[in-house]
Write a structure and sequence with these properties.
This protein is 47% helix and 8% strand. The chain is of the alpha+beta class. Helix 2 runs parallel beside helix 4, helix 2 crosses helix 7 and helix 5 runs parallel beside helix 7. The two termini are 29 Å apart. Belongs to the GST superfamily.
Length: 234
Amino acid sequence: MSDLSAFPVTRRWPTRHPDRIQLYSLNTPNGVKASIMLEETGLPYEPHLVDIMQDESHTPEFLSLNPNGKIPAIIDPDGPGGKPLGLFESGAILLYLADKTKQFIPADAARRWETIQWVFFQMASIGPMFGQVGFFHKFAGREYEDKRPLKRYVDESRRLLGVLDGRLDGREWIMGGDYTIADIATLGWVNNLITFYGARELVEFGRYANVAAWLERGLARPAVQRGLKIPGRD
């Protein structure tokens, strides 16, 4: 049996199955990247709910695993060389699990890097911009009298949806016929934008038919349906 006692996070979130990957997360757009990937790969894992609304991601125990205080984070008891590995940042987790399982990332070097660039597109652009739309449209920012920040982020989100729509023209998935970590990274954010953030009309989502069809295909996947709910609040 694996010994994860060296990780302080396991004291706040006790481990019942230390031989499984430990997932510390919440079903936010970033969090579900890890849970969807784990569901898609079939790797055994144990989810632990980190309630960011209760600031649990800034407790000393969680910060010992991710000093940046963000979900998701994982511990793989069977990391490189058979030693436990703690890992944070959702993009890094996707790449790690893809390499570990040889799934959802092309073996061909050129297509592998093409996939990674679209993961970075989500990390650097879609996530931050959509998140700002959420803040200024749904959360505290909606009370601001100055609506210029909201307009800026809405305009940029529309532009990014246009980039994604162009990429998906004639393609089933971001990488064509292959469903990859680029799709897994992006699905939760697009879905969140038009559902939880309530910004469908605001960003004129109906203009992006290729994105809408891609999202529908992604949401139809059983692993995506499960991953979007893990770990959810009781």
